[in-house]
Amino acid sequence: MIQTSRAGGTPMDEPRTIQPLTRAQRVLAGVGGLFFAGLAGLGGYGSFASVRDVAEPWFGDQAWIVPAGVDLGILALVSVALLLEWLAMPMPALRWMAFAFTAATVWLNVSAAHGDATGMVMHAAMPVLFITFIEAVRHAIRRRAGIAAGTVREGIPFARWLLAPPSTFRLWRRMVLWQVTSYPQALTTEQRRRHALALLDAHYGRKWKTRAPADVVWMLSDGVMLDQALTRVTELTAPEPAPKPVPQRKAPAKKSQRVPRSVATDNEARALSIIDAEPGISGAELARRLEISPRQGQRLLSRLARPAPARTP
Prior knowledge:
Largest sheet: none
Distance between the termini: 116 Å
Number of strands: 0
Oligomer: single chain
Radius of gyration: 52 Å
């Protein structure tokens, strides 16, 4: 659904699908067309004689050309104007020319009444009805063609104008300036814009207009390029991620050089038996048999091989 963005930064409205007329609507349109044809025929027939009589002093026997030419010209102008409206290529000059010829027809018909008010109203009634019907058809064609092309701007409900005039005027102004034709889309855009303003106010404080980047302030204030502005606001106001804790390495536990007492007692008993069996054993050999370090074996040998002190009586 997103196409090239307009100046407002909002996605351009896609041409919307027009629902075909229902059977009842087609029947009603057909009945209205028949009534219009009858109105046009009666109006042309009624004004023909009146306009011919008015034109006879100047045209003589050719006076019938004036009402016929005027009526045919009106029908031609109206038909081409409606066709151009249908093609989304309106040409206002055709409408105004049709109005001018219709006004001329009304004036000629009124002149035929010679100042009688009742006659003037009767002569003017059918041309006015004809133009009114043509304008109704033109309005319907223009609306459907505009909706299909995405150029018809939806109106803002009167209740919103009544309840919030300033904000509604700003919303309408942006819809007109940036060619936003969808009222729901304009509301969604306005909600997103206000949310961005609230985020900036919470992040920078009340003076956010002077602290935030100038381009973001401009985009949000004018309501343009909102997709880009909202992305920037999200990046600016996003909380900074908490630093990850650095894992501390535990120092390797030092191996205790101290031999448990039970192990020491067992080694001493085994050492004593070995020393008794081999009095000349070395400390290194003793350590190998006891599966201890050579230094510990030498100490153990020195301590156990030392003669016990003599007791004094």
